[in-house]
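Chapter review: from sequence to fold.
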Amino acid sequence: MTMNESSAASDLSPFLRPAPWKRAPRTGRARIRRSSIGREHRHLGRRGLAIGIDIGGTKVAAGVVDAEGNILSESRRSTPGRDPRAVEEVIVELVRELGAVHRIRSVGIGAAGWMDLDGGTVLFSPHLAWRNEPLRDNLQRLLKRPVYLTNDADAAAWAEWRFGAGQGESRLVAITLGTGIGGAMVLDGRIERGRFGVAGEFGHQIIMPGGHRCQCGNRGCWEQYASGNALGREARILAQANSPVAQELLKAVDGNPDLITGAIVTELALSGDPASREAIEDIGEWLGLGLANLAAALDPGLFVIGGGLCSAGDLLLAPARRAFARNLTGRGFRPAAGIELAALGPNAGLIGAADLSRVSSRLRG
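The token string follows.
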């Protein structure tokens, strides 16, 4: 799940190069057969079209999604400030626009924030002034069709499990690297949300006691060391010191280090700049350390890593895998989870929200 815009990637886009969202074959690890729950979900989701909506801090994206996870048509609008009613109006407008061309069974909404266990109320959202907002009932009344409400990180994890890099895994942990770090779990064909519905705040595990202050109020949270914001901050510090190794960074921002972002560092790293590559390697090591902590607690079969920072590809994942292997509890005497890039890119949340709404509406009969 996300907190304080953990899964947003606004600091990381647009990238000058396309992200490497590829469905690469996974080797070296046996696929784990899905549970009966997973088979039931696949059966329930075979027919009908659904609209998925991904609500971000700057845009509201919507798409018509079929039962195989393909997006048939898309539309988007700018997020209308922090006015919840205005956002509802935009959602209705998008659904009516797409529904005029396609016959829609249901609508899925993915948004950053905490939802109650029933999935009807947004307890808190960092993007908007939603506080105990009965969003599902409001939208069902306006749209006159089933609406499924979920956290955006949960929706993305579900999409990767159903259609992307996580297919075949019975224990999947998804990590989203953007402005912060978001997370979600799909266990035995269901999203694990915890006792109170707020599981998945992986970015706020304290990995460095007394470290950098986090927006959540604590110090030393993982997202302060392994996110896009962390990458930009460390590069800015290097450039502000006028280090000779930071000249390419300074050149990219016309000498103003305050303009350096994670996106700029990533682009320079992909172009071969040694200082930028070193900065991403440092982030990758912190990423691997946090994943080792999660493996000790959760023992997943696979970590799927998504979000804007993953445009760095193996520049990020190679040091993450090394650090993970070095810090894994019981290393050498236990099976280890795989670490793979997400396959569906920035559309994962939209696809997952749509598919969850289809499954949910079929279950309700």
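Two observations follow directly from the output. DSSP finds ten helices and 13 strands in the chain. The radius of gyration is 20 Å.
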